[in-house]
Structure formats: C-alpha cells, structure tokens
Amino acid sequence: MPRSCINMEDDNNLEFCQKLLFINENLGHDDVEALKFLCSDLISLKNLESIDSAYKLFEKLMCEDLLNKENCFLVAELLFLIKQQYLLHQIGYTKEKVQKERSTKRIISSYRIMLYNLAEEITTEDFDHIKFLLKKDIPKTVKSFLSLLRYLEKQELLSENNLEILENVFKSLSKSLMKRINQYKTEKEEEKLSVASGLDECLWKTSLQENPEEATQYEMTSKHRGLCIIFNNFKFKTMNFRKGSCKDEGELKSVFEWLGFTVTAHKNKTKEEMENILRLCRNDPKHQESDCFVCCILTHGDSGCVFSSDEKSIAIKEILNYFTAKQCPGLINKPKLFFVQACQGKDEQKGVLLEADARSVNNSLSVPKNIPQMYIPTEADFLLGMATVDGCFAVRHIEKGSWYIQALCHLLKRLVPREEDILTILTIVNNDVSKQAIDEKGEMKQMPQPAFTLRKKVIFPVPSDVSLL
C-alpha cells in the first residue's frame, strides 16, 4: 500500500518526517522547481504538476516506494545536485558521502542532470534569445528554461536520444552550452562501451572463477523468483481493437505465477504511463533479492517499436535499456527476459478469425530487413523473444489468443518440468508457430525470432505442484 509520512505511529518514522519537513522549510520556490524537474523520470508529469512544495514531492516519492527512512539516498542526491549540501546532515549525509555513493546508487539519470546543469548556466539574456529562436515551437507562456525543457519533452521534441533541437539553438548561441551537450554525448557512449565490454566481462569471469560448477546456468535459488510485468494494450484511438489479447494476458499471468514470479498486468497504458511504470520497476528494491526479471508486451507494433494505447511509438531497445546494469543495478548478472507480441511490419493476413498486430496492413509480403539482435543492449544477460521477424506481421486469433504467446505458455508448462532451458523452449516455440498457416495453401506463415546475450542457461526450477496448471 502507498505509504505516507502522515499516518505513521513509529517514533523513527516520525523523526524522519520531521527532518524532511525541516528540509522543506529551508527550500525556496526555485529549489522546488529544480527538484521536480530532476524527478521527471521518476514521477509522471501529471502528478508533478500538482506538487508545490518539497514536502509534497517527498510524500509522492514515498508513495512510489522510492524513499523511506531506511533508504533516503534519493533526497541526498537531489540536495547535492541543487547545491543545498548544508541540509545533508539532516539525513545523515555529507557531500563526500553522496559523491562516493553516487558511483553505485545514482538514481537521477545523466540526461536529466545535463539538462538541469544547462538551465543553471543559461543567463536571462540567453533565455530570451532561445525563446526568440524557438518561438514557432513553444508557447509565449513559458517562463523559465526548465519549463521550456518540460514543454519540449511533452511535445516529444526533446529526449535522451534526441537533442537536435537544443544543438541547433546552442550552435549559434553559446559554445560553452554546446560543449556541455557534446560532453554528455561522449560520456554516454563511453558509458555504454564500459558497461558492455567491461562490467559484464568482469562479472562473467568472476562467476567462472568462484563457481565453476555453477557457471553453466543462472542461479534460481531465491525465495522470490522475480517480477513479471505485462503490458496489454488492446484499446486504441484509431487502431484496431486487439481481440484475444486478454486471453494472452491471462495465460502469461497464470504461467509466470506458477513459475514463482510476482506478476502485475497493466492494461491500455499511454506512452507516459508505460514509461513511468518502467522507471518505477527499474528502481524496485525487490530486484536485489530476485533471480530473474520478465516483461511481456502485447500491443500493435511496427519495425523496431511497439505502440502505447495513445498510439505513440516506443522503441523496443529503449524499453530494454531501462534494465541495463547501469540503470538497474539490482538485476546485474541476472537474466532479463522480454517477450513481445506485436507486428514488426504491415503485411496482409487472411482468414475470418485471424488478425494482424499491426496498425495497418498492405497487400504484399515484405522481406525481413533486420533481426531483433539490433534491438537489445550490447551488454550481457538479455533475451528478447519476438513474435515475428522484422518487417512481418504477428498473428492473433480473436478468440484463442496469439499464436506466439499461446505456444510460449503451452511449452513452458510442458517443458519446464523436464528441466529444459529457455532457449530450447523458444526453439520449439519457433517450430510450432512456423507449422501454422494463415491460408489454406500454407503460403503465408509466421516465424518468431529470439535474440539474446545470455551467458548461461536459464532453467526455471520445477514448481512444487506440477499439476497446478
């Protein structure tokens, strides 16, 4: 249940909340706006709009399980970033302690910090010039650079992977601001290379050295197997209603609960809601005590992306990147499994009871252009199970559910008790799905395709009650 400072009877909780109140009383309006901006990746924009004090922000963070008396590093990091270090002692921190812990505990993304630092450097004159240069893209009511950034993000003109609008402005405005953006981009690339080539290689070697007899498969010994989240988008504004998708959701929930996962299903979520759920899941402390993570996505799609209920595209790779070693330390060295039921093209399908999970269809079969490997992070321990190869449709029966998800669930139930690993199971899923045909001649078929950077076998322990399903 959501937690709040207000109804806590424990003396320690009361003392903690009193410290947060003291911090709140010593922060001004600009400080609160800065905190809200830095937390934009943790709390939805809709919820942030109603927050007008640091205390309300802290309460919201507590409700989202991002802050409590045992773990108040997030507040320490925020105070450090807005240069209010004199308040750190209230929660048992010093500037040096925050700097040391940020190397492993950092919650605020480097992208968000870069934008905030830009805002700190921009003068009133700079801001006036920026508003003039962007007058066609922004409303006249924008009063600060932070609010301008929020507006650009809301309009999808600015994102972690799209800084073009700022680069175009700063090229003619300020070399120092442009230098900060270039520095961020360089550090981001170095970070990716470091995580991909260094961290996981080190973890692999350590595992082989310390546990050579266990090096062939991932550990599955925790009481809590892990979290499984399911996105089930079946209602859209203009795209077709995805009949049969709830059948898939039910099967997935049943199977993964049987395998020991804590399953949460999210129906018909907007892009902002999906991203917020992913951020909250990424920061969930339960990952520390788990063996594995599973994410299932049921929706319409196109090449390299899936669609939210408000029909906005989300790159598959961006979804997976929420759970890299840097972004989600709790899942380091643990398998992260993603299963996507969505078209990756617009090819036509035939048959009364069959539908394609694409936003539209055309009259010719397209040749697969890419493989899912390009959608997964370069570091280890990821598996992406795609219902179809790139450029092709994925078939869903409007009563029985999709070919891919139904085959996956059926074979997990049948082969986990035989102690088969997940890649073996997916190979048999490929075979079963490929044997099904859309037309009587068998000319139009579906071929799933997995991509992975797994270092060991993923073998789920046999559930105690094999006959449960």
From TrEMBL:
<keyword id="KW-0677">Repeat</keyword>
<dbReference type="InterPro" id="IPR001875">
    <property type="entry name" value="DED_dom"/>
</dbReference>
<dbReference type="GO" id="GO:0005737">
    <property type="term" value="C:cytoplasm"/>
</dbReference>
<dbReference type="GO" id="GO:0004197">
    <property type="term" value="F:cysteine-type endopeptidase activity"/>
</dbReference>
<keyword id="KW-0788">Thiol protease</keyword>
<dbReference type="GO" id="GO:0006915">
    <property type="term" value="P:apoptotic process"/>
</dbReference>
<feature type="domain" description="Caspase family p20">
    <location>
        <begin position="224"/>
        <end position="347"/>
    </location>
</feature>
<keyword id="KW-0378">Hydrolase</keyword>
<dbReference type="Pfam" id="PF01335">
    <property type="entry name" value="DED"/>
</dbReference>
<keyword id="KW-0645">Protease</keyword>
<feature type="domain" description="DED">
    <location>
        <begin position="110"/>
        <end position="183"/>
    </location>
</feature>
<keyword id="KW-0053">Apoptosis</keyword>
<dbReference type="InterPro" id="IPR016129">
    <property type="entry name" value="Caspase_his_AS"/>
</dbReference>
<dbReference type="InterPro" id="IPR029030">
    <property type="entry name" value="Caspase-like_dom_sf"/>
</dbReference>
<dbReference type="InterPro" id="IPR033139">
    <property type="entry name" value="Caspase_cys_AS"/>
</dbReference>
<dbReference type="InterPro" id="IPR011029">
    <property type="entry name" value="DEATH-like_dom_sf"/>
</dbReference>
<dbReference type="Pfam" id="PF00656">
    <property type="entry name" value="Peptidase_C14"/>
</dbReference>
<dbReference type="InterPro" id="IPR002138">
    <property type="entry name" value="Pept_C14_p10"/>
</dbReference>
<dbReference type="InterPro" id="IPR035701">
    <property type="entry name" value="CASP10_DED2"/>
</dbReference>
<protein>
    <submittedName>
        <fullName>Caspase 10</fullName>
    </submittedName>
</protein>
<dbReference type="GO" id="GO:0006508">
    <property type="term" value="P:proteolysis"/>
</dbReference>
<feature type="domain" description="Caspase family p10">
    <location>
        <begin position="372"/>
        <end position="460"/>
    </location>
</feature>
<dbReference type="InterPro" id="IPR001309">
    <property type="entry name" value="Pept_C14_p20"/>
</dbReference>
<comment type="similarity">
    <text>Belongs to the peptidase C14A family.</text>
</comment>
<dbReference type="GO" id="GO:0042981">
    <property type="term" value="P:regulation of apoptotic process"/>
</dbReference>
<dbReference type="InterPro" id="IPR011600">
    <property type="entry name" value="Pept_C14_caspase"/>
</dbReference>
<dbReference type="InterPro" id="IPR015917">
    <property type="entry name" value="Pept_C14A"/>
</dbReference>
<keyword id="KW-0865">Zymogen</keyword>
<feature type="domain" description="DED">
    <location>
        <begin position="15"/>
        <end position="93"/>
    </location>
</feature>
<dbReference type="GO" id="GO:0051604">
    <property type="term" value="P:protein maturation"/>
</dbReference>
